[in-house]
Specification:
Layout (H helix, E strand, L loop, with lengths): L7 E2 L15 E4 L16 E3 L17 E4 L2 E4 L6 H6 L1 E5 L2 E5 L3 H11 L8 E6 L4 E6 L14 H8 L4 H18 L4 E7 L4 E5 L3 E3 L4 E3 L3 H7 L5 E9 L9 H6 L5 E6 L7 E8 L4 E5 L29
Parallel strand pairs: 4-9, 14-15
Antiparallel strand pairs: 1-2, 2-3, 3-12, 4-5, 6-7, 8-9, 10-11, 10-14, 12-13, 15-16, 16-17
């Protein structure tokens, strides 16, 4: 049973094993217990930080910088000083008015420079203390369909597959959560453009036997990765003891050209895995061979250097 008043440290789940995984906490919302058939879960565990950060008001200045893909761009590259100080000219019939720059105004101008920052996929996180804007790519839920989407995710894995060790780490965490809470879990996989390697993050979320809901504010995500030059590549979640077959909820949620992975049958020695993306033009999901995205464990070197000179090869004639 989960103690409502206690912050659980998931890292303690791994104390008996020599496994290096990301440390995170699980808290519980102060809600009534929920009972599901076939589940011992009595609360909806949440993976989150202990401090709730207040969202900064979107209030640009002439000194505001935009931090994207590891580079900083002055706001004056996109708006004149007059527009920043007095607002953008808006014409309604025969009347002219000046309105304060909104997040969508900035996103539209950024999209001309960065086509990846499409509507319904982009949130602009404003960090007032640093007077900084950080565009965050977030796939939307509930089947929102975007007009266009980036194809860099597939392009990236064609050049460099996601390491098996990263996939293994996700399975280790997902298995522990499945064993203890009978729930799914979600993670995001990014590509660090400076280090030329992938990394994984478990955002703040509520987990449940049948779904997981990411609740992390874009500003929180932005602060976590301020020192990185990165792009988001994949969203991966577990179906714990159920097969890795996309549900109707998955079909509605996974509607951008990011990569989506599902890991199911987590109690099996070899879990089942499904990888796919969404084709905007045909409005259909496209299944992708797992071995085209993740490096296989067969591609790894053995942990020991075994003596193999006693093996002789006899060829077929």
């Amino acid at each position: 049973m989960i103690d409502k008043n206690k912050q659980l440290d998931f890292f303690s789940l791994f104390e008996e094993e020599n496994v290096s995984v990301q440390q995170f906490e699980v808290g519980n919302r102060n809600t009534q217990s929920e009972h599901k058939k076939g589940s011992t879960l009595q609360e909806k565990p949440t993976m989150n930080s202990s401090v709730v950060e207040k969202k900064d008001k979107f209030d640009l200045t002439t000194e505001t910088l935009i931090n994207f893909m590891g580079h900083s761009y002055p706001i004056t590259d996109y708006f004149s000083i007059a527009e920043i100080q007095h607002g953008i000219e808006k014409k309604k019939k025969d009347e002219v008015s000046y309105e304060k720059i909104t997040e969508e105004d900035l996103r539209k101008r950024l999209e001309k420079h960065f086509p990846v920052l499409v509507r319904d996929l982009t949130t602009l996180a404003y960090i007032k203390k640093k007077d900084l804007i950080v565009p965050i790519l977030q796939a939307k839920k509930k089947g929102q369909l975007i007009d266009s989407a980036p194809s860099y995710a597939i392009d990236l894995v064609r050049q460099k597959k996601i390491s098996f060790s990263l996939f293994r780490d996700f399975v280790i965490v997902a298995k522990k959560i499945s064993d203890k809470y009978g729930s799914e879990v979600h993670a995001d996989i990014y590509f660090d453009l400076r280090k030329n390697e992938y990394f994984m993050d478990f955002p703040e979320q509520t987990i449940h036997p049948l779904w997981t809901e990411v609740s992390e504010e874009p500003a929180v995500t932005a602060r976590k990765f301020l020192d990185k030059q990165y792009v988001k590549v994949m969203e991966i979640h577990s179906h714990h003891i159920m097969p890795a077959i996309p549900s109707a909820t998955d079909d509605l949620a996974e509607r951008t050209s990011l990569l989506y992975a599902i890991v199911g049958n987590i109690e099996d020695f070899y879990p089942s895995v499904t990888v796919r993306t969404f084709d905007i033009k045909t409005n259909k999901h496209v299944k992708i061979n797992v071995s085209d995205v993740f490096k296989s464990y067969y591609e790894m070197s053995p942990t020991n250097q075994y003596k193999l000179d006693g093996i002789s090869v006899k060829r077929h004639d």
